[in-house]
Each structure stands twice: as structure tokens, then as C-alpha cells.
């Protein structure tokens, strides 16, 4: 398995710092969720038409890959559905140019007052549209286990309505587990669809939960990695450490070395 971190962990770093630090710390790759404050990835400086070839050449020289482009697409809101489709297509086009295999999207929420069935149908429709668009571009569209779409039953309900072969699952370790689903249940049902992972840790508090450094919380990361290994997964173990959204979390100078040291130990490297 290969090791990456998502750029939410280092929101204050510019692109040059991100790639140089990834190389220095021994990461295999980087997952992109915003660069230099730009969350719409086709507009991010390294991926602009005049910069993209230099970016790709530099990554190759450093022995780094971009493992996934994380869009903000969510399909639960009918009023924003067309905007989500547009962002998804733009992100797929960028992934194809960068030779990145995956983009991430959300089902996300069942809004108050909405019918669960209607939202599931709309999420499935969004995945189908983007999947069809991605099919001839060597890109897959991955639905993350997140929000109200964080457990295997609802994920399978969505996927059962999708025909495109370019759709899969991004398993965020923390969301299903911290909402009461066992890792064996999640993996046992979603294994055929899992193409990518987010490694994240958290612990319960009186008011809910809080994110923390990998190994300091309750998510059984070694157990999950063992399940993936036994199942033949050979993809990415990508740290999602959400400092972009939770500024009180540790700085990347702490979180990123801590993660690669921890996960290499789990992998026996």
C-alpha cells in the first residue's frame, strides 16, 4: 500500500512547500483538497494551463503522485445539483490531464424536511452522470463514506441504482466507525467497491467527538489496515487531517511526520 496526505492538513503551505515536504518525509503521494486557499481545483495555481506540464514534470522528478482530486461536489441539494455536476466534470477533466485515477464526491446530507428516498435517488443520479462522463477518461468517481451517507447500507442503496462502471467508494475510516458501525461490517459489504481510503482518527467527547492525531483516538486503524491487506487492497492510505476546517489541530510539521511514522509501523515497513 502507498502512503499519502491530503492538503487539508497543511492549509498554510504553498505548492512548492507541499511537494518538497512530501518528498523529504518519504511520502509516495499527495491528495488534493485545496491549494493556497483555492478549493476549486481547476483554478489552483499549479493546475492552470500554463503551469500544469511543469507541475507534472516536477512531481515525476520527485517520485510523487497525486492519488486523488477531492471536489466539493455534493448531490443532496437540488438547487445546487447542476453546479455540482459542472464542478465534477471540470474535476474529472483535470484528473485526466494530470493522470490522476480518482475524484472524490459526496452524497452528504439528507436535509431537514427532505425525503430520504428522494435524496438517495438524486445522489445516485449525480454519480451516474459523472460516472458516464468519466468512463472514457481513465478516471473513477468515488463516493466518500461521509455525512448521512457514511454507513454501508445507504452506500449500497445508492450504488445499487448506478450502472456506470466508473463509480466506486472512498472509505473514510472515521465516519462509519464513530457513528456506530463496526469496521468488519463496513468492509464486509463495501470491499468490492473500495478504491481509495482516508485514514483519520477521533475520540468521543461529552459534546460529540473531536479529531486527533492518528493513534491518539478510538478508530482501530491497525485492524482496518489488516482487513484491507487481507482483502488484497494495494491502493493508498491517505491521511485526512482537517486543519483547514479545525485550526486548533496540530500544525503539519507535527501531524505529517507523526502519520507517516505511525502508518509505516502499522504496515511493518
Automatic annotation (TrEMBL):
<dbReference type="Pfam" id="PF01261">
    <property type="entry name" value="AP_endonuc_2"/>
</dbReference>
<protein>
    <recommendedName>
        <fullName>Xylose isomerase-like TIM barrel domain-containing protein</fullName>
    </recommendedName>
</protein>
<dbReference type="InterPro" id="IPR013022">
    <property type="entry name" value="Xyl_isomerase-like_TIM-brl"/>
</dbReference>
<feature type="domain" description="Xylose isomerase-like TIM barrel">
    <location>
        <begin position="20"/>
        <end position="245"/>
    </location>
</feature>
<dbReference type="InterPro" id="IPR050312">
    <property type="entry name" value="IolE/XylAMocC-like"/>
</dbReference>
<dbReference type="InterPro" id="IPR036237">
    <property type="entry name" value="Xyl_isomerase-like_sf"/>
</dbReference>
Amino acid at each position: 500500500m502507498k502512503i499519502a496526505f491530503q492538503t487539508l492538513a497543511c492549509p498554510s503551505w504553498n505548492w512548492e512547500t507541499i511537494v518538497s515536504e512530501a518528498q523529504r518525509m518519504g511520502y509516495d503521494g499527495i491528495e488534493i483538497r485545496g491549494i493556497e486557499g483555492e478549493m476549486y481545483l481547476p483554478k489552483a495555481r499549479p493546475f492552470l494551463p500554463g503551469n500544469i506540464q511543469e507541475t507534472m514534470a516536477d512531481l515525476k522528478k520527485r517520485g510523487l503522485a497525486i492519488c486523488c482530486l477531492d471536489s466539493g461536489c455534493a448531490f443532496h441539494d437540488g438547487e445546487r445539483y447542476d453546479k455540482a455536476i459542472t464542478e465534477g466534470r471540470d474535476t474529472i477533466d483535470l484528473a485526466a490531464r494530470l493522470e490522476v485515477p480518482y475524484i472524490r464526491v459526496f452524497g452528504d446530507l439528507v436535509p431537514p424536511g427532505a425525503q430520504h428516498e428522494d435524496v438517495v435517488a438524486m445522489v445516485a443520479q449525480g454519480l451516474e452522470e459523472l460516472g458516464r462522463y468519466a468512463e472514457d477518461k481513465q478516471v473513477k468517481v468515488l463516493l466518500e463514506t461521509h455525512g448521512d451517507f457514511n454507513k454501508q447500507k445507504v452506500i449500497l442503496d445508492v450504488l445499487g441504482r448506478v450502472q456506470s462502471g466508473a463509480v466506486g467508494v472512498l472509505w473514510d475510516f472515521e465516519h462509519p466507525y464513530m457513528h456506530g458501525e463496526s469496521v468488519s461490517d463496513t468492509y464486509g459489504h463495501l470491499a468490492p467497491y473500495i478504491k481509495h481510503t482516508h485514514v483519520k482518527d477521533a475520540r468521543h467527547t461529552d459534546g460529540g467527538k473531536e479529531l486527533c492525531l492518528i493513534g491518539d483516538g478510538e478508530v482501530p486503524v491497525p485492524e482496518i489496515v489488516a482487513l484491507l491487506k487481507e482483502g488484497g487492497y494495494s491502493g493508498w492510505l491517505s491521511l485526512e487531517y482537517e486543519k483547514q476546517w479545525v485550526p486548533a489541530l496540530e500544525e503539519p510539521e507535527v501531524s505529517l511526520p507523526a502519520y507517516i511514522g505511525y502508518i509505516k509501523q502499522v504496515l511493518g515497513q
